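Collaboration report, partner site 2.

Our partner group contributed sequences for two proteins of shared interest, and the home lab folded both. The records are reproduced in the order in which they were received, starting with the first partner submission.
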Amino acid sequence: MKVMPYIAEQLSRLRQEITELKQMNVRYSEHGEHTEVEQTARELRTNRLLEIKQELAKMLDRPDDPAVWWQKSRKPFHAA
């Protein structure tokens, strides 16, 4: 099945990204005062963690037919 390698790769990538975001948040929390840029960066990290959570939820709610899910997940991204 072609879908499983993609899922494993995607999960691995997300796991790594979560780890990196958490590490950055730990470093952020170790400092007392934060600049506006640091606060904005933390908000962006928080938003990204929420996006990852939604992405994982979508992976759980995939259609019964793996071919349909595979096609949906592989659509090219178009920048706005």
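Second partner submission, folded after the first:
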Amino acid sequence: MCVQKGYAQMTIRKGLLHAVLSRVVRMISRNPSMPILQHVKLDADGSTLRVEATDLTTHIVASIPCEGRFSACLPGSALAAFIKPDDTKDKQSIVELLPEEGGKVTVAIEAALSTMAALSATDFPVRAGDKHASRDWLAAGTWQAAQLGNALKWLLPAVGTDTTRPAMTGVMFTPDEIIGLDGHRLHLVGMPGLSGGPTLLPGNTIATLTHVMPKSGEVSAVRANNTIRFRCSTGDVQWEIEAAAMTDVQYPPFHQVIPGAGSEDFSVEVDREALLYAVNRISKPKNRRNTGVRVVVNGAIGLERDSEDGTTSTTVPVVSTTHHGADSIIGVDVLLLADALASGAEVVTARFGNALSPIRFDLGSGRVCVVMPMRI
């Protein structure tokens, strides 16, 4: 049997289990390398159910209250779809998981039944962290969830997705900075990172963390050598997100990419929301490949985009500027500007060099963005 012998049925609140599964199944690939990766591991010890999923890079575990004992792997997406509540009242319904002969499990909700093929829980990939003794784990960081969540959501768009440049697909944590870059832009947040030295973690691990992070409370991290485990709670759910540091790749020397404050030819202080509004107005090209705009700086900041219909332009007044002389013009990807300006202080400082130099944005709260120029 795929379900362990002697394990009786388990019962759990429908809304709670579905809320967990709806997040956990994000880990499930449509084309996994192994069938077990399309499954979630359900392991109940009488009072707590652990729901686990992995893509072999990131491992997510949710612990929630239940009654009964159970241990098996069930198809995650199918289970989530079957137990989806119809309305708020239906969230209080009880789900029963009943082991059957022949390696099957019956999922019962009142009069509705579904029998699913199960795989053995012993076949599920073991977390690397489970191989460490409890004494190996050391505290690596604690954050306010709201502060960390806001910072990571601003930073993640800058993390690369090109798998031929694997180092750029990670998020770098130093003891006092968190960095994402993709070769076209860099986002840096000055805030406590991870203790234990610079640590590069997969971008999808950090994205998974943001999906389960609460709006209040704390997020903590522990590490055992190069294995990092984040922990947080949302209501009745205890979350753990685990991944191994990316030690086999070399992260770019990111500080060399950031123009030093004071090294610019001129700087401009501008209302962030006004500039973001102008960027969003001009960032809707019919051709998604045509995202380049000209940034024209004089006594104001102008944005110009060429299209088949002609040239679209908009102008934003500045709070102050050190610019003098003729217009300064630099080409940039407008979508990168939109990501950079998505959050920050009311007034931001943009630091410009020549037409081939990156633009540095100081956005307050320790946030720095660097946007590389492009040919228009």
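Feedback sent to the partner group on the second submission included the following. The chain has a mean pLDDT of 93. The chain is about 15% helix and 40% strand.
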